[in-house]
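A.,

Following up on our hallway conversation. Structure tokens first:
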């Protein structure tokens, strides 16, 4: 199978067809129509074997994960996902492997009403680059730079499970079989908080998705908003799997530093706080308050039961030595 045979067999004519796609796969560019009074949100992520995923990941999980992490970026902006393009680098063509990979992509794309409109295939070390596009009403996008002193800090769900899955595989951390299934699903089949992101438009003052770790990603909001924060670490939500597998202090590196959670971290003015449950509960999302924005120059103060708590702030950073 050659490059264009691969594209025609696994991508062209598959998945949903959106009415706003004027020209999809098959030409030099795709053509789409952006709705009136909307802005185009664009994000790009590359996933590299051995850096972002284990070499033995199932192809279906890899296809899902590659799209999910990009849709999570759109969710953090409050955007509606619409179109994606896929650049796929493969060492060789294994028809069954590619079939399962593209099945994973098409499943999550159809769930979120997203059309794959183009991309590229080439030979080389295994990697996937996704460019995801979405639309957001003009002036309504959530950004990292809007947090104000007095705003409350929230997350949309439990943290640390993906990191626990990675370390259970790398270091053999003891995790019960029923919990191992849960954390591996969190790692390989993350659920981007698309509906929650759109619900937060007009309520949240800033937002980001948690990909590099809670403290690292909160730091991005603080830097751009020119504020500081206090976090009550006992309020950070964790799953039954996390609580059953590790004691409190062992959990901290996973819930504060590890990342790969793809929950939303967002700030909300006090005047909007009472509306959160009404807005988010209909999407099965629980708003958990973990701290508050303070004045300052980007510092994060950690508290445990009201007392200052010392912990090394560290998140994932490319070109460090850390790899999966």
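Then the amino acids I'd put at each of the 324 positions:
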């Amino acid at each position: 199978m050659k490059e264009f045979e691969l594209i025609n067999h696994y991508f062209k004519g598959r998945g949903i067809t959106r009415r706003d796609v004027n020209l999809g796969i098959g030409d030099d560019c795709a053509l789409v129509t952006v709705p009136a009074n909307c802005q185009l949100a664009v994000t790009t992520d590359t996933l590299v074997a051995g850096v972002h995923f284990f070499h033995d990941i199932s192809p279906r999980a890899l296809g899902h994960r590659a799209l999910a992490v990009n849709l999570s970026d759109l969710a953090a902006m409050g955007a509606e996902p619409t179109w994606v393009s896929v650049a796929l680098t493969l060492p060789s063509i294994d028809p069954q492997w590619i079939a399962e990979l593209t099945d994973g992509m098409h499943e999550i794309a159809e769930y979120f009403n997203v059309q794959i409109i183009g991309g590229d295939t080439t030979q080389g070390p295994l990697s996937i680059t996704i460019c995801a596009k979405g639309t957001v009403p003009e002036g309504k996008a959530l950004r990292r730079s809007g947090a104000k002193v007095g705003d409350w800090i929230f997350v949309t769900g439990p943290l640390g499970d993906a990191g626990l899955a990675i370390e259970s595989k790398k270091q053999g951390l003891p995790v019960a079989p029923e919990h191992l299934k849960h954390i591996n699903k969190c790692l390989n089949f993350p659920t981007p908080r698309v509906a929650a992101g759109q619900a937060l438009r007009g309520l949240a003052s800033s937002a980001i998705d948690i990909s590099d770790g809670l403290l690292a990603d909160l730091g991005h909001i603080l830097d751009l908003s020119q504020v500081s924060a206090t976090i009550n670490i006992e309020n950070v939500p964790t799953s039954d799997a996390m609580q059953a597998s590790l004691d409190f202090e062992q959990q901290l590196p996973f819930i504060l530093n590890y990342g790969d959670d793809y929950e939303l971290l967002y700030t909300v003015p006090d005047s909007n706080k009472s509306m959160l449950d009404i807005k988010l509960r209909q999407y099965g999302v629980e708003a958990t308050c973990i701290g508050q924005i303070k004045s300052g120059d980007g510092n994060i103060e950690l508290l445990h039961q009201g007392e200052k708590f010392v912990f090394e702030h560290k998140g994932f950073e490319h070109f460090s030595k850390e790899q999966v």
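Residues 3-137 form a domain with the 60s Ribosomal Protein L30; Chain: A; fold (CATH 3.30.1330.10). Curious whether your intuition agrees with the design.

B.
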